[in-house]
Every structure is written in C-alpha cells, then in structure tokens.
Amino acid sequence: MSIRFALLGDVVIRSGGSDVVPGSPRQRCVLALLMTEVNRPLSLDTLIDRVWGTTPPPRASATLYSYISRLRALRATLPHQEEWDLVRSSAGYTLRADESLVDLARFRSLADQARGASAEEAKGRYEEALALWRGRPFAGLTSDWLDAYRGSLEAEHLRVRLEHHELLLDEGRHADLVPALTALAAEHPLDERVAHQHILALYRSGRHAAALTAYEELRGQLAEALGVDPGPRLQELHQRMLVSSGDLLLAPAAPPAPAPSTVTRQPTRIPRQLPARPTGFIGRDDTLALLDRHTEASPGHDAPAVSVIGGMGGVGKTWLALQWAHTHLDAFPDGQLYAQLHGFSPGTPPTAPGDVLHAFLVALGAVDREIPPDTEGRAALYRTLTAERRMLVLLDNARDSDQVLPLLPATPGCLTLVTSRNRLSTLKVRWGAGSVDLAVLPAAESARLFARRVGSARTETEPALRDIVRSCAGLPLALDIAAAHAVGLPAPALHQLARELRDPRTRLDALDAGEVSTNLRILFASSHQALEPEAARAFRLLGLAPHLDLGLLALARLLDLSPVRTRRVLRVLEEACLVRRHRPGRYHMHDLVRLYAEEQAAELPAESRDETVRRLADFYVSNAHAAHQALDPHRTADDPLPPHRPKAEPPAFDDAESALAWFEAEYPCLREITAYARRRRWHAEVCRLTWSLHTFRWRRGLFTESIEAWSAALDAAAALDDPRLAAHTRLRLAVALAQAGRYEDALPHLEQALSRFAAQGDLAGLTRTHHALAEVHVRRDAHESSLPHFAEALDGYRRLGDQVGEANTLNGTGWALARLGRYTSGEEHCLKALPLLKHHRDGEGQAATWDTLAHIMWRTGRTERALHAYEQALRHFQAIGNANREADTWAKLGDVRAERDDRHGARKAWTNARDLYHDQRRTAEEQHMTARLASPARPADPSR
Description:
alpha/beta; three-stranded antiparallel β-sheet; 13 strands
C-alpha cells in the first residue's frame, strides 16, 4: 500500500515515496487526533477540546469544519485515496483506514507480537517497531491533550525499548548496550528499570567499579528527589555485585534463596478465591482492552502490576474486575486471592488490612502459630510467600490507598486489581498503578443489558421498557434493579413503573430492590457519609444547582468559596467519583447521584436554599450582562433595565470573541437558571437574563427559545409594574417573532408598543419601534410600506445622536429600495452607512451593509464586485460569531460562484451553508442546500 500515516515524529502522510505535510499546525493537529483513534469516531466537542483545550476560538466548530474540508481536499489530490477516508457520522468524525497504515497502531501491533513470540522472532519485531519512531510524537504541534498524550506515548516507547534490551542482555550483548543505556539513564535518572539494565550491562562488561558508582549515584538521587531508597530488585543486584556473584556474568540470576524461616509452605495449596464470573456481562470492550494494556507487562517483567478500577457506586467495577480476571486465569497459575474490603459497605466498617493479610496467609499455606500478630509483620510474610509466584490479587471495594498498600505483593509476576469508589491517586503516584475510570454504559449497551434480563422480544414490543432503560441513565445496578422489578409485570404495572422512574420525585424510591446492597439511595449515602465535612457540605449544595454541568467560577459562587478552595473541594468529590470533570474547568454530576444530592439539599432550611441559589443567579446575571456588553456594545447601552449591584465584580471580557465563547459554554446553565428564576418569581432576574441573552440567541438562530424567553420576560416586567420596561420588552418580543418569520403575530405587538411609547414620550422607544416595523414590512415583501417607518426611525436616531442606529437604518432603507428596483438610490444609502459603521466598529452593521451592497451589485451585473462584497459580509459575520447570517451568506456566495462557473467553489460554499443550517436546525434551508448540491446546474435567482 502506498499511503502511510506518520505521527511518531512529524505528522505527515507518506505517499509515493515522499512525505506530504497536511496543512497548517492546527490542521495537522486535527489529523493527528483522528490518527490516534483510527476507525473510531471523535465527536465535535472532543476534537475541539483536544485541539484548543480551555481556550477554543469563538467559531471553533466552523474552524474545525474548514480543517476537515481541507483534509478531504488534500485526500482528493493524493494517489490511492480509496485506502482511506474522513467520514462524518452522528458520533463525530472518523479516519477510516487499515490500522496498519498508521505508524502508532503498527508500533503497538509489533510490540504485542514480540511479547508473544520466541526470543529470535521477538527481537525482529521489537527492532521493526522501534524503527518507526522518527522523533518526538506530534513534532512541532502542541495542545494540552497532545502534550499529555505525547508523554504517555514516550513512556510506552521507553517500555518497549527496555523489553528489547532485556532480550539483548539475555543474548550477552551487554557491551553493545552500554552507550545507549548510559544515555537513557541520563535522560531518566530516577527510573529504576533503566538503572537496573544500565548497572547490569556495566557489570557484565567488566566495568565493576562503574556499575557500583552508578548504583551509589542513583541511591543519592532517589534520596534527594523522593526521600526513598532503591527498590528491592536493585538492592538485590547491588548485594550480588558486592559479593561478586558469578552467575551475574552469565545470565540474569534467580533471586537468592530466602533466609531460613519457620513458615511451612504447602505448594500443593493453590488458592482459587475469585467469586464466580458474572453472568450476562455486557460490553465494556474498550475498558477491558485498557486493562489488558495496563497488565500485559506483569508476568515475567521487572515490577508487580497494579490496576485501580474507580467509579461511582453501582457502575459495575466488581463485575468488570471479575470478567477480566476469569478471562486471564491462565496467566496466573499460582493462584488468585480475593478480599472484600468493605470500604463503602453500609453498616459494615472497612476491613482492617491486618485481617485481610491473615486470611491471605492462611490461603497461602501458613498456619496460625507462624503468622505475626502485627500488620507490618504479616505484610512482610505475605510478600515472602508471594515472591516468585505468578498470582492475581483482587481487592474489592477499597476505602483508600492506606487500606490497600499493605496488601500489594512486591515482586514481578503478580497483578493486583483494586476496585474503589475513590480513585486511589496515591497508588498511581507511589506504585505507578494503572487507572480505569469506569463510566456508565452507553445507551446501546444499557438496552442490551436490560434486554438480557427481561427478554429481547418483550423489550422490542413494550415502549414502557425503553422508558425504564432511559431513566436508569446507564448505571448497571439501576438497570438490574429495574429489570428485577419489571420481570413478569403485566403491561399496566410496567407503565406505572415507567412513570415512577420518569418522575424525579419517585425515581430513587423505585430503584430499591429491598436489600441494603440493592438500594441506590443507601449506596449514594455511603459515599456521601465517607466525605470530610467541607466536601459533604459542597455535595449537598450541588443539589441546588439548576443544571448538571457548571463551570468552576459558578460553582465557587454557589458554594461561597474562593475559586482555589472550590477547586480543592471538587478534587475531593472527583476522587470520590461523585462529580466528574468532563472538560477543563467544567464539572458534571450523574443524573441519579444528582437526585440524591437534591434530596440532601432539600433538608436545608428554606432561607439557606434561597440564599445559595440567589448567589448563583447573581453570578449569571452579572456575568451575562458583562458578556453582552462586550458582545454588542452598540445595542446594550440603552437597555431599559433597573440598576443592578452584583455581590461580586464580574470578570472583564477582553473582546466580543471571549464574550461569545463564554455564552457558548454557559448557555445551557443560563437557560436553566432563567427557568428557575421564573418558577421562583424572581422577576428582575428573569428580565436581566433575557435582555443579556438576546444578541447571542439572534446570532445563533435560536428564534423559538427567544420568543419563549421574551414572553416570560414580558410577564415579569408586568409583575414588576414597570411600564417602560414592559413596553421595551414587548418591542423585543415582536422582533423575535419577526426573526422567526411570524410577521402577523409581530405586528400587533409593534403597534401596541408604538402606542405605549407615544404615551410615555419615549423617543428612543418610538424610534426603535419604527425601525422594527420597517424591518417587518421588508420581510413581508411590503417594501413600499417600510419606507415611511425607515424615515421615522432615521429622523429619531439623528435626534438621539445615535449614529449606529442611523447607519443601520440607512442600510435597511438601501435594501428596501433595492428590492423595489431602485438600485442606485439603495447603493447610495449603503455607502453613506458604511463609514459610520466602520467608525463605530459595528461588525453586525458592517456585515449587513456589505450583504446589501453585494445583492445590489449582483442584480446590476457586477458579479466580481458582488463576490467581493459577499466575502466582506462573511468575514464580518464570522468575526462576530453570527452563525445564523453566516449560513445565509455562504448560500449566496455559492450562487455567485456558480454563476461564474466556479463549480468547486460553489459546492464548497453550499456545503458550508448546509452544515451550518443543520447545526441550527433550519430544516427547510438545509434541504434546499442539499438539493442544490445534488443538482448544481444553475445558481439561484439573486432576488431570492
């Protein structure tokens, strides 16, 4: 095959013997990310997070689309394009190709082959794998995710190098390895695996003094940097060098015979303590594969392996551990030990490590009189009895790392699997433990698990059962409990169960199978009660948050803590698997855990609950107002809102881009806090939030939501008994209706607003209402009727000294005149508007005016100038993040390019328009673009 994808060095596509650099650094970054997950989709959100981290650009989605589009265009220029493709699906973007075409996948495959091959075959596989590395992975590219993954890949590379070195040392090629190992030891001065190989190679090469010196240098460095001595394997090597052990010169020696002991081994007793393999285990293929990668180096290698499976209660940690363990029994012929540590068992205290060690020692053949009375002595004897054995130890439901540490074997060949609701970070730091953060099941696997319990045929025919599965939110224990309830129920009872599970007030009651171990409320309570007081308080207060997904600063206000302190508390909750940081700076709580937190929050005094949520509402009111001012300063200066004094100073947004990015991240939370304020009749907060969100909603084409919000704000303004605010809110409701195409519904509101403003003598209100009436008439194709209203608005803006309003009215007049065929006069109005808009840096107005000029130029046969004008409009719409108008402009750009016989450019523009329409749920426009792409024979009429 002639195509190869390389990321172990510079990111390039190798085609026909030459390297093709696939575009700009960010574009190469996108391709590299797809290469790391070849044949697996990456969602749009995941790609954005991995490319830009916490600081995505305002139009990250559109930028990503353009990178993908350019990569597809590059593919079209390369030979053998049938060997790969970039595919978009509902799950995201996928690089489709044979995995062997990607050097990283090829590297891993060769390393895996080497581990299962004979020594001679393994050597060749290792050499072929290592030859694929041409430098640091993703050379020249950077992002938070790539930097972290690069470190992981380099650790993987080091491991494979050391495995290769072991083979060469076994062959007696120690002298050849000394230069490479000397350099490696300098590069990794605290890595005991490297040090062991380096010292052994020096010793076998006859450089005994250098080997002893290298050991002393390592001991000094470990003591200074970490405060520890070298590990047992290095200490043993050191002792054997001191006594000039002859077999060191021949081959890696077996450890010396253990000192005389009173312990009587019983080699015929091989413990087989694992509970039964779980029945009906579903899915988890990726997680099982991750455990394979964590543990495959255990038998026969230089350190015992430890893997921690962490996750919330009921997520299936024990089942996963047992499934993996039973699948790999052959790898541990000397036995399997199991202990239930009761770290979070309701009503049962955590098992003491000394008690577990006593049971393990008995299982390993020791008798009571030989077992030391203290935990430390038992741990030492345990390590002695597990030495030189290949054993699996499963420690289930651990409370913390201190409970686990005495139970870890100390020699290679053993593997310890630990399950816990805590992440046990100490094990990762001190033992290099692998980590599996077990998530809930995806929807498809949830349905399969439930169907296996209640029967596939019934699941397919009973809609209530599908509702039950959705209510369990992917939590395996919840699915098992619900299935136990559902089995054998007649249809009416099933519908009743589904209703109880849909209702948040009764869902946890329904997920109770009658025993402590199968009651979700008790399960979550045991995790909550294990928290320190500050974290337990924070967990309870999180139950008051109106949305499941919050940012750090919002949470700080909710908890009434500093951001630094909040981050520490959240880290404790993360460690306990009660919240999840799903994106940098943003935290999420599982639906069912959230219900339990809500129950705990409901026990707080009413005054405390109100005070807590008002802090959060105040945060969003003040921040949304600040972001709105930065996003559209020309249209917020005269918002008719009462003064607001926030309890904390909102952040200053540097520009419109940062404000737009904040709205994008926080919009779901803003929507929920507004709904909460409506329910609580916090009328001022409802009005302030609605006014602060209207520009964002307009630019994102969220017309239906905008109408609902303005209707609620109108009710709130009436409740506040503020006639001026009510009149201006009615005007904004009319504008929202017009933006959604509901012109006949908008007109009565505009006429009523006009009457109210006239009665109040409100010139600004009258002016804006005339402007809105003019725009509605334009949208109804009543262009002649719009001109008197434009004239009134123009006069009003000039009397108010509002040059931005004046300029936008000039543009609107120009558009109406152009639609009446009076192109010269229309163009004159637009050319008067443009300098004013540039002077005041009104990006929205400039974009709209360029759009009008483009239409006039196209209709008057000046196609080249029309193309330029549409490109100017597009640039401005993109700069301000107005995806709604950006989509329309792409569509018209495609039409102009088609008229110029630029078919490729036309299709690209129409494709961009279609994708944006799809994202905005503008179905009719999306279908129109799809039809245009299917048959781009002629462009649309420019008058359309």
